[in-house]
């Protein structure tokens, strides 16, 4: 299963991408995360549904200095498999 995520709030400059990667790796989720020019964070999570749901829940809290206003989650096509979880620039 694969989900496309957009996170809005104070999510840049607070270690959000590295927080997401650390939690994804701990849960066995693959994919990527990156900052967007509009201030949001975008990510694609691939794994078991329960693992993805747990990662989304962790992202709702975020790292200590963050403030998550909202998270949009949509289903992504499974046309590409990821080997690991990366932080994109």
* Helix percentage: 25-40%
- The neighbouring-strand order within the major sheet is 4-1-3-2-5
Task: Give helix and strand order, one letter per element, not per position.
Answer: EHEEHEE
- Roughly what is the average pLDDT, rounded to an integer? 97
| Rg estimate, integer Å | 12 Å
Determine the structural class based on helices, strands and strand pairing.
Answer: alpha+beta
Specify the overall morphology: globular
Tally of helical runs: 2
Q: Could you give the count of β-strands? A: 5
Weakly predicted, low-confidence segments = none
Distance between the termini: 24 Å
Question: Major β-sheet, in short?
Answer: 5 strands, mixed
Strand content: 35-45%
Catalytic activity: an acyl phosphate + H2O = a carboxylate + phosphate + H(+)
Pfam families: Acylphosphatase
EC number: 3.6.1.7
Protein name: Acylphosphatase
Describe, in plain words, how this protein is organized in 3D.
With 89 residues, this protein is an alpha+beta fold. The chain has two helices and five strands, in the order E-H-E-E-H-E-E. It has helices at 16-27, 49-61; strands at residues 2-10, 30-35, 41-46, 67-75, 85-87. Strands 4-1-3-2-5 form a five-stranded mixed sheet, covered by helices on one side. Helix 1 (16-27) packs antiparallel against helix 2. The protein is globular. The N and C termini lie far apart (24 Å). The relative contact order is 0.35.
């Amino acid at each position: 299963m694969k989900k496309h995520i957009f996170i809005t709030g104070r999510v840049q400059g607070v270690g959000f991408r590295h927080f997401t990667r650390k939690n994804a790796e701990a849960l066995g989720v693959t994919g990527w995360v990156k900052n967007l020019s509009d201030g949001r964070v975008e990510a694609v999570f691939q794994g078991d549904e329960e693992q993805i749901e747990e990662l989304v829940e962790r992202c709702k809290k975020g790292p200590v200095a963050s403030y998550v206003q909202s998270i949009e989650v949509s289903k992504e096509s499974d046309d590409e498999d990821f080997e690991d979880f990366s932080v994109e620039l």
